[in-house]
Amino acid sequence: MDDINLMEISKLEKSFGGLNAVQDFNFHIAENELVGLIGPNGAGKTTVFNLITGVYKPDNGCIMFRDENLVGMAPHTICTKGIARTFQNIRLFNDLSVLDNVKIAAHKNVPYSLMGAVFRTPGYFRGESEIEAEALHYLEIFNLRNKKDELARNLPYGEQRRIEIVRALATRPLLLILDEPAAGMNPQETQALMELIRYIRKEFNLTILLIEHDMSLVMGVCERLYVLDYGQIIAEGTPAEIRADKRVIEAYLGEDVG
Amino acid sequence: MQKVNNKWLKLGIEVVVLAALFTLVQYLITAGLLKQYYQISLASMCINVTLAVSLSLINGFTGQLSLGHAGFMAVGAYIAAIMTNMLDLPFITGILAAMLGAGLAGFIIGVPTLRLKGDYLAIATLAFGEIIRVTLQNIGYVNGPAGIMGIPKFATWPWLFGGAIVTIVVIVNLINSSYGRAIISIREDETASELMGINTTKYKVLAFVVGAGFAGLAGALYAHYFYIIKPETFNFLKSFDILVMVVLGGLGSTTGAIIAAVFVTALTAALQSFPAIRMVLYALILIIVMIYRPQGLMGNKELSLRTFGRIWGGRH
Ligand SMILES: Nc1ncnc2c1ncn2[C@@H]1O[C@H](COP(=O)(O)OP(=O)(O)OP(=O)(O)O)[C@@H](O)[C@H]1O
Ligand SMILES: [Mg+2]
Q1: Tell me, what's the pLDDT at B307?
Q2: Interface probe with A: pick from B62, B114, B181, most Cβ of A within 10 Å
Q3: Domain assignment of residue B62, yes or no
Q4: Does the residue B37 lie in any domain?
């Protein structure tokens, strides 16, 4: 199955001062797969995401994405290769409208030139309406179209989380990575989010990697899980296998396992 | 009240208003009805609007603190003056060379400093402004501290007004495009912007170079209106003046920058004989704005027909 892997990470390492945040991290995700990364607080999950997206430079290791090593690339280049993400602590463009937040993500495919913008060519007007139509389409899917003119900062937490996903989708990624997308959501919202994640995966033919603390979400939606503890992978397998794994139960799940 | 959002109607009204303003002033000048004092004020307003709008692109929209706008103005002023005064080239050549030269200076400062996050640009531009001034004081070809005198007075009302309008149109069109959104997203959250596929370094440099280029235009206009330029004209206080206009107007508002530039110029002109009072008033206004309206006059909102519609009709 190696040849259909969308991303393959080997021997990834990152330390902060004396702290080994991630060590000997080996990982693969196939096209169209939905994989979860779980682990206790401080296990290094977000650090892995930051390494994949180029926010941090790994001390060691290799991140192969469609036959290219991402290590050393700038974050915006990695995004143009087809990886988009959301953030554990929401990072929307707060003083801008919801619509503008989504439009910004479409900039990497901007259909007109800078001169076209300055001289207001027909191409500019055409391009702008294309961008707007696409952004509205994404907002529609997430039931946020009626919020398009609101400032991002004024929306409730759950909606901000969803806008982050919309914004990531608007970059037209192949791999979407979500850092605790259900954090702070109530059970109904979480349930709806699960449906939505399944839906967009099918609709946009996406590969999805997600970090989640909410066990019901992880177990319900992921096909395969990696468990991280103290920067190292301690288990890998299907939700059922993970549920039964002794080390995982010790390290993390405890009585939570449903 | 009917919603005014037809873009052609809006554009039509803007063009008519601006043309009327332009023609009125032009008529008053040619008919000799406008006193010298008012003419100078109007010229300064156009130049200051150009400066404030171009700086607001850098400080207001991109969120990068530049403290050396007068330095780019100086580059433009000297290049243009050399072109027309010493090389006898036409004014338009001088203007274009001024913009290119100031833009190039912006590029040279911007590339190394804007690659880094943080306030490196503030330090670099502050130093740049001083270095330009000191360098000019020591170049014999441009008469050192005495400066260049007797520059032809090419910057007539159409040039001044046109310069300000071109600056506004270019920067507003830039801002209201995908490129502008990319630039604004840097101010909002540089990391998120980068992760959404935006080459933040490239766009920071772009905004900075465009802003510097238009400061060069303002310099060219200044030199050919006041027909004398000295290195001391473009000192840190001048940079600070422009910054005050941008902050007063509201970071991220072009209309705010325009209104503040006009207001500050009028105030300066009115208090010409009392420079001390001017500085005190300046400080006072700044303090009051910082306390009661820290986002500036307009915040990041633009003044538009709809704003009037809202005030007038009392509905959104
Ligand atoms: N920039 C940084 N500088 C120093 N230490 C860091 C940095 N980023 C992360 N760490 C440390 O690395 C370890 C892993 O952090 P990380 O955020 O990846 O954990 P996590 O698994 O995402 O945890 P959580 O579930 O709480 O989000 C933690 O001990 C954290 O303090
Ligand atoms: Mg985390």
Answers
A1: 59
A2: B181
A3: yes
A4: no
| Cβ distance of B177 and A128 shorter than 8 Å | yes
Residue type, B308: F
Which positions in chain A touch B173 (Cβ < 8 Å)?
A: 117-120
CA dihedral A97, A101, A103, A108 (to 10 degrees): 150
Taking the CA of residue B191 and the nearest CA in chain A, the distance in Å comes to: 8
* Interface-testing mutation among B171, B177, B205, with chain A (most A C-beta atoms within 10 A): B177
pTM score, two decimals? 0.90
ipTM: 0.90
Distance, in Å, from the CA atom of B73 to the CA atom of B71, rounded to the nearest integer, reads 5
Residue B311 counted as domain residue: no
Does residue B101 form part of some domain? yes
The structural domain count of chain B equals 1
HEC profile for A2-30?
Answer: HHHEEEEEEEEEEEECCEEEEEEEEEEEE
Q: Are B108 and B128 in contact (CB under 8 A)?
A: no
pLDDT band at A187 (very low <50, low <70, confident <90, very high): confident
Determine the structural domain holding residue B16 and report its residue range.
2-25+49-304
